[in-house]
Design brief:
Blueprint (H helix, E strand, L loop, with lengths): L6 H27 L13 H14 L3 E2 L17 E5 L2 E3 L15 E10 L2 E10 L8 H22 L1 H4 L6 H19 L2 E2 L4 E4 L6 E6 L15 E4 L2 E3 L5 E3 L6 E3 L5 E3 L2 E5 L4 E3 L4
Helix pairs in contact: 1-2, 3-5
């Protein structure tokens, strides 16, 4: 059941969103720090370095990691990290502090994190190219571009729901907008939305109703009313949609071994449109 948030809840979520946006920006900067022209010789950044930094920055901001110790439905153990770190063919839910990996130039690195602040939770993700986008190939650059455009399309539809969906924007409308944004890239490059995965309600807990699909038909699904807080997260594969769960019980990878990107914002639906809570 969709739980709307009060004005007081939304103000706290707004503060939490700024905290999370700043943390993700700092993590991105740390990924790139090993590849800058003035980086010390031999400097590297590992997945564990990023996990440690995520915990440090969260504590300094007076927040707590929302994912650390969280056990989602179907999991047989709590998630062991604050940061979800997914690299290249890892689609979502990569664990940074178990199989520790050094970030290499050209890696497509997804930084996905949730924070809890004063009892309210936000969730956001970005995918970046280690060393800058000139370090990857054309398909990698186009994949990043497509993922950003898919999220932007969903954001714009929500911001303009009064005009475009005057009876209220539904979850299927959002999925259809995301699919439409990927049409060109699907035809030209073969990019597909990762099967099964999508966004969700958030605010009081990490995962709430409703499910926000990354594909769908307009006019279907529950309506997002003013006060609805949701995380919208296009997850786009370089190849086919098919994915599988790795042996650690969390890491999801592409079946064809091709790369995946993930972009996510937490938003609140307002009387006038929508507000993005997790941008700087």
């Amino acid at each position: 059941m969709l739980q709307t948030k009060s004005k007081q809840d939304i103000e706290i979520l707004r503060q939490a969103g700024k905290i999370l946006a700043n943390i993700l920006a700092a993590l991105d900067a740390e990924v790139q720090s090993a590849f800058s022209s003035d980086a010390p010789e031999g400097k590297t950044v590992s997945s564990l370095d990023l996990e440690n930094l995520a915990r440090k920055l969260t504590a300094e901001a007076g927040a707590t990691p929302a994912f650390l110790g969280y056990t989602p439905e179907g999991a047989d153990r709590p998630f062991p990290a604050a940061l979800v770190l997914s690299i290249n063919d890892v689609v979502v839910h990569g664990i940074p502090n178990e199989k520790i990996r050094v970030i290499l130039p050209g890696d497509l690195v997804t930084l996905d994190m949730g924070v809890s602040y004063k009892g309210r939770i936000v969730d956001s993700a970005i995918t970046v190219c280690a060393g800058g986008e000139d370090k990857t190939d054309e398909k990698g650059r186009k994949l990043l571009q497509a993922g950003r455009e898919c999220l932007d399309a969903a954001m714009e539809a929500c911001k303009n729901w009064r005009k475009e969906y005057p009876k209220g924007i539904k979850t299927g409308d959002i999925g259809a907008e995301i699919e439409k944004a990927n049409e060109f890239y699907k035809k030209k490059y073969g990019f597909h939305m990762a099967e099964y995965l999508g966004g969700h309600g958030v605010g009081f807990s990490v995962h709430e109703d409703p499910f926000i699909p990354n594909f769908g038909k307009k006019g279907q699904g529950p309506v997002l009313v003013p006060g609805s807080v949701v995380a919208i997260e296009p997850i786009l594969n370089e190849g086919k949609a098919n994915i599988f769960l790795d042996t650690d019980g969390y890491t999801i990878k592409t079946k064809d071994g091709k790369r995946s990107v993930h972009f996510e914002h937490t938003i609140v639906i307002t009387e006038e449109g929508a507000e993005i809570l997790t941008e700087v």
